[in-house]
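Researcher: Structure for this, please.
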Amino acid sequence: MQAMATSFELQSSSGHMRSVKRMAYSFDGQGNFTSKEWDLGLTDRRPHGEKFSWYHVELPRSHTSLVSAAQCLISALCPPLKLQDILALSSNGPFCGHVDGALIFRCNSSGPTTSEYTQKLAGRVTEDSVITVSLGRIPRLEFSTVLRGSFLSEIPAVEGNDTEPDRFVIQQHVLEFYLARNHIEDVNHRIPMSVINLVVHIIDTHIDHLQDILTRLEMDLDENEHELDTGGYVVKQQMLGNRLFPRMQLNLQRLLQVVSHGEQVFPRFKDKVVARNWCSVDELEAIQMLVSRLHKQKENVGFLASRMAALQAGLDTWQSEQINRKLYYLSFLSIIFLPLSIVTSAFGMNVGGIPWTEQRNPELTHGFQNVLFLCASILLLLLACFSAPALYKHVRNIMTSKDKWKATRGSFKWRGTFRSGQQCNGYHPL
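Model: Predicted structure, token format:
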């Protein structure tokens, strides 16, 4: 059994440690922090004055299976974590409970890991440490200050205008990049004073990340809606061929799954923290505000889903109209060739007088001409039947307009004249 455990550890740590990003921070509980080396499980190497620590593992999106993700966590967190901790952190679905004396929460959604709409966040909380695992990078999660060369600390100017020496020209694509994000990365974070403050910061950045994804999806939806309104046949046909709105709806459902997991997990996390007396009243209010933000995000997801359904319904209606129009043209062509098919099916071509043949019988000379006259008569009869309603409506409109014109013209006529100072029956002259 020991040999099997050793071989499993070597096999799991051989090819996964290179692709896993790890971060470690030390906090003194007084508003100060330091970045430190990875010393998980080594209590003798902790910095002096450390009150609590934070260890974060960032799983790469290249690992598409739960087994590979669990192997990465085994390589990064074992020891001191046990197999039950690894399983609680790496499994899919919502979870919040106590495992081996620690409080573990998990909001891992299922789906392809290469999609940004598949998000995973799990954490293991104790009195003096926090261990978190995320799928891919979560912006603004690290603790850092604004760099001296950052755009955010400079005074910008618009491209093409006369700029002063102390201002820099911001390009259009850079401005679009920053406007597409609700939360700027290069900002100062409030340093947590306790373990629960740190967990609140982690959950807050996770919700901000979900809001950024939702904002980008909404901007893409606005752009596609504008293209749908202004585009022609080719644009609409391309949207139908690419299944644009169904794919956006699928991504939105994946994001909705992440938000729903958070709605289930974070209230339970708050209750379990209260039971252990780990947090203050302000920290409880902060967690409750985060839960309220998740409720608002869920409502926004519902609004976007309704918009996508309406746009897809409009595309389906347009496609039905195109199909009906093509069927109408096809029916019209079939009407044109219907007389010929009827006559040829009834009589065949056993008629005389067909051009470029050797038929010289005088009695059968006019047979082919009679067939053509019969086809033309049937065609005219069918066209008259189809055009009769429209022609009747047109004539009816003309007659109605003439009657209205006569009634209007007659109201201005004088119905009598003045003769010998006497007034005849009629209107008085104006």
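Researcher: Any notable elements?
Model: The longest helix spans residues 281-347. Residues 1-17, 414-424 have pLDDT under 50 and may be disordered.
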